[in-house]
Amino acid sequence: MGNKQGCEFGGIMIRTEKQFYFAGDVVLGNIYLHVIKEGFSGKVVQLTIQGKEKTRWASGSGSRSRMHEGKYNFHKVTVVVHTFDDDNLKVGQFTFPFKFYIPAYFPGTFYFKDIVFASISYKVIARVVSTSKSINDIQNKQALILREPIKEIKTLKQKKESTQIVSGCCIKRGTSSIEVKIEKNAFFPNEFLNFDYDIDNTNCQLDLEKVDSVIVNRLRLRSNSNRERVIEFELNYQYHKGPQKGTKIQPEQKQEYQLQLINLKKPLQHLIPSNKGLFVNSKYHLRVQPHYEGCSCCSPRPTVQIPITIFALPPEEDIQPLIQPENWNPQEFQPIIIQSDVQGQTSTLNQGLQQMANPMKN
């Protein structure tokens, strides 16, 4: 025979005031315990706060195919909320308020599943620990949705690049430069990125055939065996005509451009947010790159990449309201304040950021 379920003796429920938080917020909540019959061996009520990154992707093909996986519990704190005097639970109703702080450097909740899998998730777990080998714990869990804090939104950000252009047979064709300006650097999905650029081709002997403007998402994943997978998605793009040799864009010719922050291949699907995890790292940039006539592969083109941030859209709250049992009149205990470094169980994310020499850098 299998173990008895702890829920035969009662139920436990954990609820925070809301489900959606920013890193750096304070979380308030309650654990509700309703014991309906005696016989459960255990007296310790625990609360666990957990943050986890997961990755998975395949490489190779046929007999050489291989699956890469990453699992990283960067934050796990378990505290004793209450210890009853008796070794066996007594029938009754109890409420345990709690409070904890989310470190400001935590990465936001993340989920992506396509050619690779990547997720960052958070949850809180309440349980009464069973001391019997034949009875399972009484437990309940709730997901938390976290967003990285909104940093300063910079306006009128610009960047300039100048390059010596070399054509076929390594013939020098002069220099060309491009300067790109964007209206701001942080957006929600589906917003429009407004930008313009200046191109000076007066010292170049090659015509500019076209100028590419592309929104790029760079997703970097890591496995437990230290393997990495980097994918660049070109999400939305435009092509514009550039100036001829010996000329530049005149003030009266200058135009303003717009690119919507969508994936043209999947326009109904919101863009995944920017993210700074150790195993899951998502970055965005606007890339503006000129293309010259003929073969100019002997030299790099003056390409401008301006980083941008994509925020996660606030989700709709989906925590179902609690239905109180009949004659609900619980004994309420004093609130417990939970520290992130309880008994040495500190978050390993900040330690990893310091020790791993920034493995997600470009």
From TrEMBL:
Identification of the protein by name: Arrestin-like N-terminal domain-containing protein
Domain Arrestin C-terminal-like residue range list: 173-314
GO CC list: cytoplasm
InterPro entries hit by this protein: Arrestin-like_N, Arrestin_C-like, Arrestin_domain-protein
Ranges of residues in domain Arrestin-like N-terminal: 14-136
GO biological process, one term: protein transport
Cited Pfam families: Arrestin_C (PF02752), Arrestin_N (PF00339)
